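Regression test case RT-17, inverse folding.

Input:
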């Protein structure tokens, strides 16, 4: 999945059009357990297994994207 597709999917999950690849997760009000599950669903679609610990260790959208590659 390329970065643009990833960002579009995350914008839909977060219902936030201002998110960029460099956005810190702590700056995203909508980043919560429900959006985290949406992210995990994307990972599963790609055949990737990501743990909750791996996701919690991420500090930016770029970190989340890196987990998928």
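Golden output:
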């Amino acid at each position: 999945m390329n970065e643009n597709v990833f960002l579009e999917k995350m914008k839909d999950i977060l219902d936030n059009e201002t998110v960029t690849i460099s956005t810190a997760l702590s700056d995203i009000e909508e980043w919560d357990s429900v959006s985290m599950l949406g992210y995990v669903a994307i990972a599963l679609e790609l055949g990737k297994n990501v743990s909750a610990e791996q996701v919690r260790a991420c500090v930016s959208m770029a970190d989340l994207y890196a987990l998928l590659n």
